[in-house]
Amino acid sequence: MNIFNTLTQQKEPLVPQGDLVRMYVCGVTPYDTTHLGHAFTFITYDVLARYLEFRGYRVRYVQNVTDIDDDILRKAREVGMDWKELGDRETARYLADMKALNMRPFDVYAHATEEIPAMIMLIEGLIAGGFAYVSNGNVYFSVARDPYFGALARAVGIDSYEAMLATANERGNYPDDPHKQDPLDFVLWQAQKPGEPAWPSPWGPGRPGWHIECSAMSMRYLGTQIDLHGGGYDLIFPHHTCEIAQVENVTHQAPFVRIWMHVAMVYLNGEKMSKSLGNLIRVGDLLRDYSSDAVRLMLLQNHYRQPWHYNASLPEMAERLAVKLREAAGVSQPALDHREGGRKTPTRVVAMAEEAFIAAMEDDLNTPQAVHVLEGLAEHILEERRQGRHDLAARATLRRLSGVLGLTLGETKGE
């Protein structure tokens, strides 16, 4: 299949080495409740993994949780909770929401706090190679030492030192840190501050920087070169840009990632939906009123690379479509499968629907078109039924292809 590679700005074939697809996706920082933007991102990769398995590949899907971070420590202080208790609570909520949305289980769900030895080893390698330096108990990556730094950022228009610095500063780069050699340098290990948790290291007690964790964990669980690395569009810079610098300057193998895939933002009231802004549609709230299939259909009717705006009519329309698919699939009427006269041999209509579904998915995971195909197949089934005929092959195909999109064709309302 072809996927749009953020680094090259063009669609490229996803060609794994053998039949195993190695896929890493940046997960959540668990300091608040899962929202619709998270769901859009993670259901995109869930469907990608399901489709690859449908096409006969094995998939090793690794996702991380950043369970130690400035945001977690800040929120814990605000609400008067222990930072770990807060992180564990929000991680559990995230996983429960994703399970309720019928997410495929991750093959590895890596917690940053459990992977610190691997991060320290990677940092030591960067220091030994001259790409990082120690200052006052902190360790920083020196961007001046990497002539290729920023290629991923430049691909999306962050194409100068000034633009990179401005963007990085918006996302916690701390340019005024007096221990840096260059304002754009980023932290690999930060020395312990009063009252904060810490782990031992060769440079003194402290904790890892944000970027180093994903580099260390992807290398540990997937190897030094992986097929696809994903996340939200807002991670392109600095996070994923820094990941490339960390890995390729230790392994001296390029590319670290064959295809970089990024999911666009979801907007509410004209602003990007985010925890920091507080303008959220929470997954748990939606699931109280709508089925998981409706939420998935609402999301999948938007192409993953196109930003979109949420409004309250969208889940209602998606629920109506979920009802139509469920009715056509006959999930609540299994006796239909055994009625006399049911057509079990696939017709040209069924074959064309499956071909169109596959063509859509092969073309940069075009889920809106794939959903459209399923709706057309459902309408065919329902029309056949109105004519007194029962296209069992079409119903079986509808069920099978719906499963590729993670639809259960179950109850029409949330629990």
Describe the structure in brief.
The protein has helices at 36-54, 70-79, 83-100, 116-128, 151-155, 161-170, 210-222, 236-251, 283-289, 292-300, 313-329, 348-362, 367-386, 392-404, and strands at residues 2-5, 10-13, 20-25, 58-65, 108-111, 132-135, 138-141, 186-191, 206-208, 226-232, 257-263, 266-268, 271-272, 308-309. By secondary structure, the protein is of the alpha/beta class.
What's the structural blueprint in terms of helices and strands?
Layout lengths: L1 E4 L4 E4 L6 E6 L10 H19 L3 E8 L4 H10 L3 H18 L7 E4 L4 H13 L3 E4 L2 E4 L9 H5 L5 H10 L15 E6 L14 E3 L1 H13 L3 E7 L3 H16 L5 E7 L2 E3 L2 E2 L10 H7 L2 H9 L7 E2 L3 H17 L18 H15 L4 H20 L5 H13 L11
Parallel strand pairs: 3-4, 3-10, 4-5, 10-11, 12-14
Antiparallel strand pairs: 1-2, 6-7, 7-8, 8-9, 12-13
Helix pairs in contact: 4-7, 4-8, 7-8, 10-11, 11-13, 12-13, 12-14, 13-14
- Can you write the helix and strand succession as a string? EEEHEHHEHEEHHEEHEHEEEHHEHHHH
End-to-end Cα distance: 36 Å
Return the average pLDDT rounded to an integer.
Answer: 93
DSSP strand count: 14
What characterizes the major β-sheet? 5 strands, parallel
**DSSP helical segment count:** 14
Query: For the largest beta sheet, what order do the strands appear in spatially?
Result: 5-4-3-10-11
Structural class: alpha/beta
CATH fold call of the largest domain:
Rossmann fold
Question: CATH homologous superfamily of the largest domain - what is it?
Answer: HUPs
Unreliable stretches: none
Percent strand = 15-25%
What's the CATH architecture name of the largest domain?
A: 3-Layer(aba) Sandwich
Q: Report the CATH C-level class of the largest domain.
A: Alpha Beta
Instruction: Return Rg in Å.
Output: 23 Å
Shape: elongated
